[in-house]
Amino acid sequence: MHLDFPATLFTSVAATDSCYYATGVIADSVPPYKTASIFVKFNLNGEPELVKALRDTVVSYSTWEPVLEALPDGNFLLSGQSRDSTTKVILIKYNSTGDTLFSRRYENFGQDGLFIKLKAMAVDKAQGQYLLVSEEVETASLNDADVVMTKVDENGGIIWRERLASNNVNEIPHSAIPWNNGGFIIGAQFNNTIAVDQNYISRDYLFAIDSAGQVLWQYQTPGSELRHGATALAAAGDGGLVVASGQGEEFYINPSRNGLRWHSGLVYKLNAQRQVEWEVAFDEPFPDINYNRLNKLIKVSDGSGYVAAGHLFMEYPGISGKDINGWIVKVSEQGDSLWSRYLRFFTQSPDWTLMHFLYDIKETADGGFVMAGQAEDFEAGWQGQQGWLVKVDEHGCLVPGCHLVGTASEGAAAGPRLLLFPNPADGFLNVFLKDPALPLRSGAAFRILDAQGRLLATYSAGRLEEATHILPVQGLPAGLYLLQYSEEQGVLWSGKFVKR
Question: In order of start, what are the domains of the chain with their CATH numbers?
Answer without folding.
Answer: 7-400 (2.130.10.10), 412-499 (2.60.40.1930)
